[in-house]
Structures are given as structure tokens and as C-alpha cells.
What we know:
Elements: E1 11-16, H1 23-36, E2 40-43, H2 48-51, H3 61-72, E3 76-80, H4 88-93, H5 120-137, E4 143-147, H6 162-175, H7 180-187, H8 214-242, E5 248-249, E6 251-252, H9 263-266, E7 274-276, H10 286-301, E8 305-309, H11 328-338, E9 341-346, H12 372-386, E10 399-402, H13 405-411, H14 423-437, E11 441-444, E12 455-458, H15 466-477, E13 481-485, H16 507-510, E14 512-517, E15 525-530, E16 537-539, E17 543-547, E18 551-556, E19 565-572, E20 575-580, E21 583-584, H17 586-600, E22 612-618, E23 622-629, E24 635-638, E25 644-645, E26 650-651, E27 655-658, E28 663-669
Parallel strand pairs: 1-2, 1-9, 2-3, 3-4, 4-5, 6-7, 7-8, 8-9, 10-11, 10-12, 12-13, 13-20
Antiparallel strand pairs: 14-17, 15-16, 15-18, 16-21, 18-19, 19-20, 22-23, 23-28, 24-27, 25-26, 25-28
Helix pairs in contact: 5-8, 6-8, 10-14, 11-12, 14-17
Amino acid sequence: MKRTLSVPGLAYGGDYNPEQWPEEVWAEDMRLMREAGVNLVSVGIFSWALLEPAEGVYDFSRMDKVLDLLHENGIAADLATPTAAPPAWFFRAHPEALPVDRDGRTLSYGSRQTFCPSSPAYREAALRIAGALAERYAHHPAVRMWHVHNEYGCHNAACYCDTSAAAFRRWLRERYGDDLKALNDAWGTAFWSQWYHDWEEILPPRATGAVPNPTHQLDWRRFCSDALLSLCTAERDVLRAAAPTVPATTNFMVMATFDALDYRRWAPELDIVSNDHYLISTDPESQIDIALSGDLTRSLAGGPWLLMEHSTGAVNWQPVNRAKGPGELRRNALAHVARGADGIAFFQWRQSKAGAEQWHSAMVPHTGTDSRIWQDVVRLGADLKALAEVRGSTSPAEVAIVWDYTARWALELPAQPSGELRYLDLVRAWYEPLWRAGVAVDFVAPDADLSAYRLVLAPNLYLVDDAGAANLAGYAEHGGTLAVGFHSGAVDENCHVRLGGYPGAFREVLGVRSDEPFPLLPGESVELTGAVPDGATGTLWSERLRPAGAETVASYAGGPLAGVPAVTRRPYGTGSAWYLATLPDPATLAALLDRVRAEAGVEPVRTAPPGVEVVRRRGPEADYLFVIDHTGQGAELPVAPGSTELLTGRDTADTVRVAPGGVAVVREPHDR
Length: 672
């Protein structure tokens, strides 16, 4: 049973940490929250040391006051288990619970997430404090959602201690059916005399003199994700036992800098999928990352989700922390809503005056309410109130991009033909032309039901199991249009090379065979010729490709592979399958994907000028068209007669005007 969040309209708020401030500030907090339209705050995330000042000794007096105050002011609480930051007394009693890094160094407490995920002492203490909170606040009227932990794996995705080693061995015995021969076969341990004769010989992939076994590393990544998931579900179960109807969430980090957890395995365990997203200062078009991350989070959730954290301005953890420009806070937040978020929250409510994140922006900045940030926060609250009816609406898409965390991990292991390949970079390269064209996208697993999509893209699927490969081939065979990027299908789920030529699992459906890759050096490119724009080039990769049923769309124009196909298309069953054996320059890739889209019959949500983002959410009675101007020039778009622009409440004629750097949201009734 999936439990839902009971707050009116779209949720709005942020992390509230009143323990950082004297009680006389709390009344002002309530007044300002009402002024801004805040209706949900996360509380208690980093309060373990105050809630449990000594083992088994609890002090709930502060939390009692805070929750009562929130309820009196009509603000719901997302009550957190504070287990992301164990107190100092815990580590003094249990120094064995401290994490150990790959080089064998034991890390000290003094920040957050300084615990070993496999530590029995940590698990016992975490479940104890979660149980105490659940028992006390299960029926408090302010508590509308449980916030389990915070950003699992952000700082301790892997621990290499002996306790983790023992837990890893238990996980392996379950995975391989207690069959050591099966593990040796899966890991290919005949190479470099790595054969294991006893389970106790197996260690985490600690620092060693040469390249570690790839399958060993891959299983370690799987184990680390599962170890943290086990902690999450254990806390969730404690909370559910006390409050069966209150939904539980934890905040994912579906963003460019984090890849530690297999969120596809995590999402089904939560009532509500939440995400944290922060801009990377060096990304000149961070609006594309917002869109990609939002689409991926929505796809993981299977529908609407919550943005649990983002920033009002600068963060504090990048080499240079860029402030947001005029209108950027509003554009960022509403872009997340456009991509399926049913709530918007920030880290944090009031900017800290002390501590590691004192220079991280907040809803109430150091300057106070006499600031642009505060004005933007209040305006956003009004916007979200005006968009209340959008809640629960869906985001239909005819295009799917295949996304697989295990394939991402495997591609970026050492000793590849090219160390320049980055999974997210390849996915974004293919996603960007779709974003610019205004084409809606879902992200799917290789074995997902693909019947709803006209077009499926796999920018890179280096690792794929037999079921996933067969599913994608079957999709094309039964009428779908499939496009696959280079170095896909190369290995199976155990990271074993699929013999017989590349691209391995996809040779048959793509109708090509390659016997040798020719990776390109950094900065190197190869000219392309054929049905591509003049001056077309490819980077990162090339390979000696031989058609085996496919037609050549483009070829390499020079170098050792002159005349060899670089882009191919094969009719397959009643569908078609395309292969890109290089990474074309952005204009060429966009032109190729336009051709593939046209073949599949995929149209944009709405034709718009370059730099104007158009996204649709669909409700039972109306579509909601989000128009976001990233050009600073403004734009005018056609809309259905009888539509209403929700942010202003004005009826439109047959067009809507979005202000320079602004946002418009148009309700288009279905019966018009």
C-alpha cells in the first residue's frame, strides 16, 4: 500500500533546524513561514545528540515544542530520524562503528555519516532512536510524513572494514547460493590466480597494487547500495509499525555528482520518492541537468515526486559557489514542478550562522527579509499556491531513454578501452537535443515494458543481461524504433565480455559486427560523411564496423577507418534499429536524432523558440503547459482557446506570453 502526503495543494518549505536558534526566534519563524506560504518542513534531521544526549536517555522537550508550534500555525512536519549524524557519545562507546576507507584509514567522527553501514552497533542505535521517535510522535497531528535518515551514502557509500568484509561475504553467499564455484566463475578468478578456495579469503576491493577484478568491484557496488537500503527499510519498518498510515520517504540525490546507490532498487521501498538537486557551478546550461534529473526522478517514482532539497542561491561545497541570477530561483523551482514534482523544498529554512554549512544559502538568508532571496521565496510560495490543481497530474512521454545504474558502474570501472567514457555525459549528450526540441522523455530499465513508447534510446548500455537485451530487440522487432550508442552490449551482468564481436548482445538486432574498437584521444575527432550535416565529426570513439544486415547512414571520412560505417540503420521485424558507433558533434547528433524521431512519429510538446523550455503535465480534465524562458528575451506561444494562465489567473486568447527570464503555466482544458 502506497501512502500519500496529506497537505493541501503543492508542498512548500524546507529543512527546519530550530535547535540552531534560541526559542525567541521560533515565533518569528512561524510568522515568516505563513508569509511565504510554507506548508511543510522537515524537522529533526541532525538532532540526534539533543534528542538522545546519552544512550537510552531521551529529551523530547524541544521537539515537543517545535511540533506543537508547527501544528498551531498550520504547518505540517516531515519528521526525520536523525540517524545521518550519530552523536559523539555513540562513537566513544563504539569506535568499531567508524568507517574505514579503501586505503585502510579509520575516519573520525566530527562531521556527518561517519559510520560503517554494516555496523551492528550503529544499526541497533539507529533503530532505537527511530523507535523512540515513532512511539512518541506517531499520532502527533503535525506529523504528516516520516523522513528516514538523510541522503544515504552521501559520505559513507562504502566502508572497507572487517565488519563490512564479513557482511559482504554474507551478501555474496546469498547471491551465489552459497556456491563458491559459482562465485569464482562469475568473477573470472582464473585470471591472475585470484581463485578463492574459502569464503573467508574474500575481502572488499581494498587498495591493491594493480587493477582489481572488475566483477569483484561491481558486486561490491551492488553490496554497498544494498547495505544502505537494508538500513533504510529497517528504519521504515519501525516507523510503519507505530504509524501505519503515515508515508515514509528518504531523499535521493539524482544529480550529476552522485552515483553510489541503485535508486531503481530503492524507489519501490518508499511511499513517496524525494530528491535533492543542486546546480553545478561549472555547468553553463544547468537547466538541462534540472530537466534530466527531474525526468529521471519522476521515472523512478512512476509518477509525481517531491523535491526535498535545492538551494535558494549558492551552495557551500563547490570550489566556487555561484549565486543565482535574477529569476533563477523561480525558474529552477518551477522547472522541477514541470517535471513532476508535487512539492518544492530548500535546504534550509534559516541560513546557519555557525557550522560547516554557514555559507550555504537558505530561505531566510543572513541578511534577513531585506533581501532578494526572501522576496523570491515569498513570490514562489504564491506561485505554488496558484498551481495547486497541478498536483497529482502526470507527464506523458513517447520517448524512453534506457538508464541502468549497474551499467553506469561497470562502464566507469578501470581498464576500459577508453577512460574518457562517462555514462552521464553520454546520456546527457543524447538527452540534450530532445530537451531543446521540447520532446518529453521517460527513463526506463532495460527490461521495462516498452509498449507505450514510439522511440527507445540507449546512449550507452555497456552491461546488459540477456533478458534486457532480448527485451530491447523484441521492442524493435514488434514495431518500435530503437537507437543504440557505441560500446553497448559488450558485457553480461557479470562483466564478462560477450564473445563473437561487438556490440555483443545487440549484434543481431542492429545488424552490425565490429572486431576492434578505435577509441579517440582527448581532443581528437574524426570527420563523418554521408547523410549528416557538412562538417560533421565524431569524438570519443570509433570502431571497425561491418554491416550484417544494416544500411550505412554515415561513414568515417578519414583516418585508419576511412570508409567504414559510423552510423547504421537496420529494418528489424516491423521496426528499426539504429547504431551510432561514435559520439557525433552536438549539431550532427541532433540532426540524427531528429531523423530517428521523425521515423518514429514523435512530435515535440509544442514548437517553441530556441532556449524556451516547454513541458506538459496531464490532469484528468486539463493539460498544464509549463513555458520557461532561459533566453532572457521572452516568447509568445500558441495555446488552445479558452486556456488560463495560472500564475496570473488571466484567461488567454490563443497565445501566451512569457516574460523575459520568466515562467508561464497554462491550463488547457481537454474539451476545448
